[in-house]
Amino acid sequence: MSLASSSAEPPPAPAPPPVSETPFAFPPSYGVDRAVLLVRDPHWLYAYWDTSAQTWAMVQESGLADPTRGWRRILRLHDVSQTTPDQLGAHTHLFDIDLDEAARDFYFQAPAADRYYLVEYGYLSPNGEFVRLAVSNVTDVPRNAPSDQLDESWGQLYDEALRLSLAGAGAARGVPGQPGSATLPGASEIMAGEQEVPGSADLVRHMSSGTASSHLAQTLHDALGDRRSSGPFSADSPRHRPAS
């Protein structure tokens, strides 16, 4: 048996295809009838649109794109804050924006913030007849000010967190012979209302005496510093107000 065939070298690998130097370009149209309205900020809106081949053929055949016929290519802005998109009319129409025949998108100023808008794309005749080619989505323009919603539940959340902290600290209370033992109300006593939650000064003194770490005591001292003169743990609180 001859070994000449086994000693032959394999054929060379094919050369890679040449790299194209042509940059990517978006197509002039995606062949759909659509309009899109986006918000940039409380003051500016951005719209873009597209037209299918069938719709564009209808526009040319009907003479809408003929400049001698007087039709104008426009964006029509509507405020739909108090209505729905299927109820467009004179009560929602704000203004029209004239477009160049080569335009594919457009930036324009929002009339007001904290409103809902949409646009129609189409052609307007000299006598006011409007032929719509596409209608956009509804866009929410945000308010141009901080929110007026204030959270009024932080005090209740803080009180609950303090109760849980005291419940953990009460596990080490009253242990005979243990240094730093303190008499603090336990979790069940606090929840049942048999013992009052100590004031901020008493709490820091208890926590500093060894019931909890000095780091936790300092943390509670800092957190309660602004509440000694007011709030649920102050001398003016109904819980601690002296009997008259």
What does this structure look like?
- This protein is α+β, with helices and mostly antiparallel strands and 244 residues long.
- Among the domains are: 34-141, Immunoglobulin-like (Sandwich), CATH 2.60.40.10; 184-230, no CATH class.
- The protein has 5 helices and 8 strands.
- The strands form 2 sheets. Strands 3, 4, 6, 7 and 8 form a 5-stranded antiparallel sheet that branches.
- A hairpin with a 2-residue loop joins β1 and β2.
- The protein is flat, with a radius of gyration of 38 Å.
Second CATH tier, the architecture of the domain at 34-141: Sandwich
The radius of gyration is 38 Å
Low-confidence stretches: 177-185, 228-244
Overall, the morphology is: flat
Into which percent range does the helicity of residues fall?
A: 10-25%
The ordered H/E elements are EEHEEEEEEHHHH
Indicate the CATH topology of the domain at 34-141: Immunoglobulin-like
Tally of alpha and pi helices: 5
Number of strands: 8
Query: pLDDT average, as an integer?
Result: 75
Question: How does the helix and strand content classify structurally?
Answer: alpha+beta
Highest CATH level, the class of the domain at 34-141? Mainly Beta
Q: Separation of termini?
A: 122 Å
Largest sheet report: 5 strands, antiparallel
Question: What proportion of the residues form beta strands (DSSP E)?
Answer: 15-25%
The CATH homologous superfamily of the domain at 34-141 is named Immunoglobulins
